[in-house]
């Protein structure tokens, strides 16, 4: 402030202090450095050559100190940092979430990792990712979860097929029809749910392919290779020869997405907690 005003009286006034302690602070700084920063006379104050060199560095140090304090405060509040999020199925919810977070939490960097469900849980428990988005709630004592998405399955049909001409598709309509299905096995949550639904209603589709990724499933439907049942948000993936129809009876098949986190993070990881709260707010919205 003295360097800006070149006058101790005006500098002290702008700093809301009296002139003597300000003069003492400058003298102490000069003593510490072992050189004069200012030349003083009755006409005013001028910077010495050393003072002119020291001034921009001093300003830089002050700004760095302020930036460090601000960074620490952001980290404490949880609105800055990095959060690694695992996901296994390409829901529209995930890209929508990233876009919303970029607008609301611009200093939080989201690192997305597409992983199988078991891989997500393993990495989450090992601290290699911070949050997981999976289609079922895990039963593990060190993890907590909450559903963030629940939506119906739709029938994805080749545009030229007779079933695409109606307003909806009943499960019985799919009896004997070629169906592209989610794969069985350890990752087969949707496979188990849908095949059990068909069996309970005496419907036997003809499974022609077992595919995990939604975009690959819809690409095959687009080529006329069969029908598919997909979560409703998959309808946002535009394929020119694919039409989507609701299933009858309504609500016969529901897709879920669960947010999973380490219970230990609830106490000591502000940025993960803030992202978790943000994801829950987006889910409610």
Short description:
The chain has 285 residues and is an alpha/beta fold.
Describe it.
- The chain is of the alpha/beta class.
- The chain folds into three domains: 2-77, Winged helix-like DNA-binding domain superfamily/Winged helix DNA-binding domain (Arc Repressor Mutant, subunit A); 81-148 and 256-284, 3-Layer(aba) Sandwich (D-Maltodextrin-Binding Protein, domain 2); 150-255, Periplasmic binding protein-like II (D-Maltodextrin-Binding Protein, domain 2, 3-Layer(aba) Sandwich), CATH 3.40.190.
- The protein is 41% helix and 26% strand.
- The protein has helices spanning 2-5, 8-14, 19-33, 49-77, 93-104, 117-125, 189-200, 214-222, 265-268, 270-284, and strands spanning 38-41, 44-47, 81-87, 108-114, 131-134, 143-158, 169-170, 178-181, 206-210, 227-231, 242-248, 254-262.
- Strands 3, 4, 5, 6, 7, 8, 9, 10, 11 and 12 form a ten-stranded mixed β-sheet that branches. A two-stranded antiparallel ribbon has the order 1-2.
- The longest helix is centred in the first third of the chain and has 29 residues, at 49-77.
- 25% of the residues are buried.
- The model has no long low-confidence stretch (mean pLDDT 88).
């Amino acid at each position: 402030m003295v360097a800006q005003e070149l006058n101790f009286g005006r500098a002290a006034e702008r700093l809301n202090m009296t002139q003597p302690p300000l003069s003492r602070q400058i003298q102490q700084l000069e003593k510490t450095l072992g050189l004069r920063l200012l030349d003083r006379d009755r006409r005013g104050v001028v910077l010495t050559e050393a003072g002119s060199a020291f001034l921009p560095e001093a300003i830089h140090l002050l700004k760095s100190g302020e930036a460090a304090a601000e960074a620490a405060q952001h980290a404490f509040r949880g609105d800055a940092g990095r959060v690694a999020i695992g996901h296994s199925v390409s829901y529209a919810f995930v890209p929508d979430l990233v876009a919303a977070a970029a607008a609301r939490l611009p200093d939080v960097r989201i690192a997305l990792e597409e992983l199988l469900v078991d891989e997500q849980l393993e990495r989450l428990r090992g601290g290699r990712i911070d949050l997981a988005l999976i289609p079922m709630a895990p039963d593990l004592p060190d993890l907590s979860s909450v559903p963030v998405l629940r939506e119906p399955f739709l029938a994805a049909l080749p545009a030229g097929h007779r079933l695409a001409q109606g307003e909806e598709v009943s499960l019985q309509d799919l009896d004997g029809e070629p169906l592209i299905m989610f794969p069985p096995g350890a990752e087969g949550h949707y496979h188990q749910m849908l095949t059990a639904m068909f069996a309970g209603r005496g419907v036997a589709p003809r499974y022609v392919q077992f595919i995990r990724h939604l975009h690959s499933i819809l690409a095959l439907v687009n080529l006329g290779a069969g029908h598919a049942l997909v979560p409703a948000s998959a309808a946002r993936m535009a394929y020119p020869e694919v039409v989507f129809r609701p299933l009858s009876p309504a609500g016969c098949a529901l897709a879920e997405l669960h947010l999973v986190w380490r219970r230990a993070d609830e106490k000591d990881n502000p940025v993960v907690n803030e992202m978790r709260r943000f994801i829950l707010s987006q889910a409610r919205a």
